[in-house]
Amino acid sequence: MGRTTVVLVSGETRWKVRFVSRILLDGVNPYVPVDEERATALRPHWRRPIPVLVRINAGPITPWRTNLMPKGDGSFWLYLHGPMRRVANVGVGDEVTVEMSSDDAYHSDPTHSMPEWFKVALAGDPLARQNWTRLPPSRRKEVERYLGALKTPSARERNLQRALKVLRGEEGRFLGRDWAGGR
Predict the structure, then answer these.
(1) For residue 10, how many other CB atoms are within 10 A of its CB?
(2) 8 A C-beta contact, residue 102 and residue 14
């Protein structure tokens, strides 16, 4: 395993894991494998995605924020998106030095809380409210984020009507997907 040390990252002291690995390919997705021992150094006994700060070959100065994705056997994948690889000037098959620390500043709370106008509309529509509570948290978060970003009253009203329609169980398209049965 790579050395685990306390270092200074973005002005805060954090545990950091350093190791050398080769960039591999999972389908079309470039990644670096992260074994269970290294992942445990970041977050012991963790089986969900781990929010991390990452530098590849000592760059960039401000680390990338991303997630380690669990494989299911205790190890993780560190997917390397295009900008990460371009900054490090690396590609699939290249050997890289990876520096990681747990991103303790990450919070999974919604970026936007539920807009008051949407909350009022749901309170007045029992069927839509019931189907809202049945949605997975990730879908509710997606809807709240989208509705919270709307700027004009006409966009809010138009999207409110679409949201209520699909949440009542009517078939329709909302947020780029087909909805049926309130989901």
Answers:
(1) 12
(2) yes
DSSP helix/strand/coil, 76: strand
Is the domain of 20 the same as that of 89? yes
Residues 80 and 126 occupy one common structural domain: no
Average model confidence (pLDDT) for the chain? 87
- In the sheet that 24-26 helps form, which strands lie side by side, from edge to edge? 4-9, 12-22, 95-102, 50-56, 59-70, 76-79, 29-34, 24-26
**Residue 161 belongs to what domain range?**
116-179
CATH number at residue 61: 2.40.30.100
* Structural domain contains residue 127: yes
Same domain, 82 and 28: yes
- Establish if 108 belongs to a structural domain: no
Identity of residue 57: N
What does DSSP assign to residue 131?
H
Top-confidence range, 106-115, 119-128, 129-138, 174-183:
119-128
pLDDT exceeds cutoff 80 at 12: no
Residue 91, pLDDT above cutoff 80: yes
Nearest to 35 by CA among 17, 52, 54: 17
